[in-house]
From TrEMBL:
Residues annotated as domain Fibronectin type-III: 18-105
Identification of the protein by name: Fibronectin type-III domain-containing protein
Pfam families: fn3
Listed PANTHER family: FIBRONECTIN TYPE III DOMAIN-CONTAINING PROTEIN 7
Matches recorded under CDD domains: FN3
Organism name: Sphenodon punctatus
The organism's place on the tree of life at top rank: Eukaryota
PROSITE patterns according to UniProt: FN3 (PS50853)
Amino acid sequence: RVNFTFGKWSLFSLSLVPPEIPIIDQAYSKLSNSITVEWAAVPGATSYLLTAQDGESFIETIVTNSPGTVTGLKAATLYKITIRATNSGGRSLPSLSKKTILMPCRRNMANGICNRIF
């Protein structure tokens, strides 16, 4: 971390080291077009990059804290989910991935969670 000061005034602080790799606690879906990911906060991270990859393409979403949701996904598709922590020093390596299949669902009115149709 580098602090830039002028006299007694601190202008700003800049981290030159990327944050540690986040660990995905869980990934789940409430809708058939999105996946929500939960993880523990990483010290020094200012944002997180969630990536859902289906083999052909990927969708990325930037969020500031957990949980984060990746939207615009296709139902009945297997996705590999990863997360990277970011700060002014760069991006961490990607987390270990979680693989999940986004199945069509029927919404449970009691809790809003998707009931999978296999």
